[in-house]
Design a protein that fits this description.
Blueprint lengths: L1 H27 E6 L4 E3 L2 E5 L3 E10 L6 E10 L4 E5 L5 E3 L3 E10 L2 H4 L8 E8 L8 E8 L7 E5 L1 H17 L12 H23 L2 H81 L9
Parallel strand pairs: 3-11
Antiparallel strand pairs: 1-4, 2-3, 4-8, 5-6, 5-7, 5-9, 9-10
Amino acid sequence: MKKISILLCGFLFATLISMLTFSPAQADIDRITWGQPYLQKDGQVVYEHDSTVSLLIHVKNDMNSSGLNVSRVIIEFDWGQNKTLDLSANIVQIGLNRTEVFEVIFTASATEAVTSEWAHDYTIYVEHVNATTGPTKIVGTWQRTRAQLFAPYFVVYSTDQAEAWELKQMILRIESNDPFKNLDFNSTEAKLAVYKAQNETSNGDALYARGDFVEAKAHYNAALIFYNTAYSAEETLGPKLDDLFIREIESRIGNYEASASLAASFSTTSILLGSAVVLFGIGYIIKQLGTLKKPETEPVKE
């Protein structure tokens, strides 16, 4: 029991020392903001090889009434290299309860980052000195980790990977829109081209996952060519279908006109026949009337 109590006291003492050591740092490096990245996904900020990287670091002086003299701002990456903003020749003083934004700029290197499969962690350091001029000495260095800042991991894509990624995004945009979304094609050639494009995309995805970005690009390019073939085949078939549709409509109209002419002819014949019957009837009646009105002839006397 005594041993447990000693261990507990030791733990509490270590926690207190940790709080005294790191709390000021956590209060003074307020937040960070990565400049426009190549892309941002899955809690990662991604830059392309040889692109310019910018990190804004917001530093607040909430403890030094005489001013905080910042001499260096450092990003320490987990691959063992630092990116530094050196202000030793022009030290910046931050007044009490004031905030200053420092920008660390460097070039993204796929070689330094080793591989894009490695999402890099980092720590921010702010070094401050005793004066702004003359001989100076470091009086403290504040630090905050990426996790403490709730910031994204850092990733660098090689040129080939960045190009492969762009090609895949183009394919995704095509596949998410009609007619590719529902394979709504009339042309058999177009449908076949789409199936080939999908196969090429699957092969590209497998190669991308293995890190073979050069071959992945080749398959993604092939997929885009097949999608373009599908468009062309459907566009070629479209006018042909329109012509067939128009001829079908014209044929139906001709059939309707023929039917209407036949009906009209039948109606005319019926009218003429009816008129003939009526005239025949009138003639018969007149004949009968003439018979009724004819006088009787006298007998011949001998």
